[in-house]
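Help needed: design a sequence for this.
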């Protein structure tokens, strides 16, 4: 949501891409649709891609979502090559539409240690995009924009406020409780709550358990 608002602030129209990869829940898809509408996206594509056929992650299989706190190892919520797959699909749509700027909300500061959120990964993908496309071969450079990559969660919360966004529209939880409510105990809930607390901003999130 914040990355999309930053793209709009930078003067771009929005083509919003959501991947329905048969993740554990549908709530984030509903949140994406609400956010795309609120930000007046010119088009919002929800693309089905069943990554549960591969498994290998707590988000695409029956592996339990860890609730013990953010650790130092890459957690089982990592989805194999997810951002590589997602950015490749975004690149394909961008080339078809004549767009050359891809925005992704990866963060490499307050995060769970996923390797596909790091600056080196983003730079490598951008280089690949300019080698692997007709547009790139003809000299039309693609840029992968990561406006949140070096921000703390508190700084992202403050950006949301500055941009006039309703943070309550966004969804972070890996394993939602009925309601729907954020579970409050997974890595993503803990990092989300930490961001609001450190920013000194009231947290609009409904949690089943207080992080």
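Sure. Designed sequence:
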């Amino acid at each position: 949501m914040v990355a999309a608002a930053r793209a709009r602030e930078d003067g771009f129209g929005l083509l919003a891409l959501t991947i329905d990869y048969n993740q554990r829940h549908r709530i984030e898809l509903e949140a994406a649709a609400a956010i795309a509408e609120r930000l007046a996206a010119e088009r919002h594509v929800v693309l089905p891609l069943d990554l549960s056929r591969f498994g290998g992650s707590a988000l695409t299989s029956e592996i339990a979502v860890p609730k013990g706190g953010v650790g130092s190892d890459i957690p089982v919520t990592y989805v194999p090559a997810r951002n590589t797959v997602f950015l490749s699909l975004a690149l394909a749509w961008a080339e078809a539409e004549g767009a050359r700027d891809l925005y992704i909300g990866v963060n490499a500061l307050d995060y769970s240690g996923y390797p596909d959120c790091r600056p080196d990964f983003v730079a490598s993908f951008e280089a690949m995009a300019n080698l692997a496309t007709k547009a790139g071969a003809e000299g039309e450079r693609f840029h992968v924009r990561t406006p949140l990559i070096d921000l703390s969660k508190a700084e992202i919360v403050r950006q949301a406020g500055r941009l006039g966004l309703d943070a309550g529209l966004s969804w972070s939880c890996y394993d939602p409780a009925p309601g729907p409510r954020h579970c409050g105990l997974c890595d993503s809930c803990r990092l989300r709550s930490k961001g609001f607390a450190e920013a000194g901003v009231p947290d609009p999130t409904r949690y089943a358990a207080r992080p």
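Helices lie at 2-9, 27-38, 82-97, 119-132, 134-137, 153-162, 187-199.
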